[in-house]
């Protein structure tokens, strides 16, 4: 990395990537690249900046335990500090802070750090620094619009998660645990919904929201006016919101979550960017219910006939499925990985067999549970009947009194007779 020191700034005037585009860089990524350009660890740069601004830190500041790209005032503070030190303006646009007054916090942060391997690989192939996109830090975004693939969260080399930037030394694009290139990860094609959401959020990130000053209520009132004739309760039931939630937005300063905004954008056929710019004067929502407005994506991997499969990675993914709380069948594994079942048994025999065995045990246990539940119900029905003074009950009568789940157990009448005979003998 060759960055000339800026004579007017204390730190290199490193240019942030993707400013003003859907692929805007996150401040976390910028910060790591900045540290790297100075030959410092990210932790050392964080300590140095805090000291420079005489910021008291009681305990050791683990820089990576904070999210520098979030909506918090802390992110905004970091953006301001780094702008001052680098001479690069508006670094807060690389955080979610500008959306603090329009986006609810709930459900916004992803459970683990994600990335699009194709984006990182493309950065590298172009000879530029691989960098992390801000959109990857918004949980409802699960896909890359540019490459039409799902984001991933596992290092393809060591299979660990949260290895993107949670360490004192970070080079964006490389695993903080094993050092492998994160752009090597394999990922599947994105769903149409995933791509639609990625597009919406990407457009939103291009420009600051303009409604931040006028407040949300006038916008929300316009939305309810156009989409439900001004009736909040109709709006709530029509689009799956709670009435108290709507009332909270309108009367108590509540802020819709990103998912709520996406619901409005989808059914109102209006972009998030237009909503947040307050461009609603000419907006007419559609009369008919809206279907997903985009065609099926074209996978960048489609048409590649014999893709070379990375069996080490596939076996690792199978092992991960083996550890998943919900047992996964080989059939499902083959669907998820896009690899033929026969091939899985051939090339990852141990893992495939272990999956199959685990799944069979799970099915058997489920069957036993259902039978035990059924027998309890039959017993209860009979006990009630006997307590009421009757001598017995036909299997058909019992069947009529158990719930539909129990009714559908195979061999039901055999079970009923067995329990009845047990009780009455
Ligand atoms: Zn991508
Ligand atoms: Zn790794």
Short description:
The protein has 425 residues and is mostly helical.
- The share of residues in extended strands comes to under 5%
Compressed to H and E, one letter per element, the order equals: HHHHEEHHHHHHHHHHHHH
Based on Cα principal axes, name the global outline.
Answer: globular
- Give the biggest sheet: 2 strands, antiparallel
The whole-angstrom Rg is: 28 Å
> N-to-C terminal Cα separation, in Å?
86 Å
Determine the fraction of residues in helical runs and give it as a percent range. 40-55%
* Total domains: 2
Strand order of the largest sheet: 1-2
The total count of helices amounts to 17
Count of DSSP strands: 2
pLDDT average, as an integer? 87
Structural class: mainly alpha
Which compounds are bound in this model? zinc ion
Low-pLDDT residue intervals, each spanning 5 or more residues: 1-6, 293-306
List the helices and strands and how they pair.
Elements: H1 27-37, H2 42-52, H3 73-86, H4 117-126, E1 143-144, E2 149-150, H5 192-205, H6 217-228, H7 232-239, H8 243-251, H9 258-268, H10 272-277, H11 311-323, H12 330-337, H13 341-347, H14 349-387, H15 395-401, H16 404-407, H17 412-424
Antiparallel strand pairs: 1-2
The structure holds zinc ion (2 copies).
One zinc ion (ZN) is lined by residues 116, 118-119, 144, 146-147.
What does this structure look like?
By secondary structure, the protein is mostly helical. The protein folds into 2 domains: 1-208, no CATH class; 311-424, no CATH class. The protein is built from 17 helices and 2 strands. It binds zinc ion (ZN) (2 copies). One zinc ion binds at residues 155, 157-158, 160, 163, 175, 177-178, 180. It comes from Aromatoleum toluolicum. Residues 18-151 form the TniQ domain.
């Amino acid at each position: 990395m060759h960055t000339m020191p800026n004579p007017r700034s204390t730190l290199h005037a490193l240019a942030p990537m993707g400013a003003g585009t859907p692929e805007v860089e996150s401040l976390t990524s910028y910060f790591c690249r900045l540290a790297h350009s100075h030959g410092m660890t990210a932790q050392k740069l964080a300590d140095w900046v805090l000291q420079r601004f005489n910021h008291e830190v009681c305990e050791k500041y683990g820089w990576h335990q904070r999210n520098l790209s979030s909506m918090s005032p802390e992110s905004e503070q970091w953006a301001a500090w780094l702008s001052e030190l680098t001479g690069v303006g508006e670094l807060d646009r690389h955080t979610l802070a500008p959306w603090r007054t329009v986006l609810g916090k709930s459900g916004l942060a992803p459970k683990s750090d994600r990335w699009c391997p194709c984006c990182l690989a493309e950065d590298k192939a172009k000879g530029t620094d691989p960098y992390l996109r801000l959109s990857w830090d918004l949980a409802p975004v699960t896909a890359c619009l540019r490459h039409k693939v799902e984001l991933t969260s596992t290092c393809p080399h060591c299979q660990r998660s949260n290895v993107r930037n949670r360490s004192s030394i970070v080079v964006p694009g490389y695993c903080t645990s094993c050092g492998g290139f994160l752009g090597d990860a394999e990922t599947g094609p994105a769903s149409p919904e995933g791509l639609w959401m990625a597009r919406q959020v990407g457009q939103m990130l291009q420009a600051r929201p303009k409604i931040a000053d006028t407040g949300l209520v006038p916008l929300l009132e316009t939305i309810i006016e156009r989409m439900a004739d001004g009736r909040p309760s109709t709006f709530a039931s029509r689009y799956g919101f709670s009435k108290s939630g709507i009332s909270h937005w309108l009367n108590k300063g509540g802020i819709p979550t990103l998912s709520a905004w996406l619901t409005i954008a989808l059914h109102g056929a209006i972009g998030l960017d237009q909503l947040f710019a307050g461009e609603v004067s000419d907006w007419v929502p559609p009369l008919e219910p809206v279907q997903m407005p985009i065609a099926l994506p074209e996978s960048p991997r489609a048409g590649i006939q014999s893709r070379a499969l990375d069996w080490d990675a596939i076996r690792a993914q199978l092992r991960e499925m083996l550890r998943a709380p919900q047992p996964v069948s080989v059939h499902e594994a083959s669907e998820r990985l896009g690899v033929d079942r026969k091939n899985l048994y051939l090339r990852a025999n141990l893992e495939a067999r272990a999956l199959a065995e685990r799944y069979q045990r799970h099915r058997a246990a489920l069957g036993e549970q259902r039978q035990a539940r059924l027998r309890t119900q039959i017993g209860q029905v009979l006990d009630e009947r006997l307590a009421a003074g009757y001598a017995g009950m036909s299997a058909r009568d019992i069947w009529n009194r158990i719930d539909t789940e129990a009714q559908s157990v195979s061999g039901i009448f055999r079970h009923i007779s067995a329990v009845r005979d047990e009780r009455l003998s």
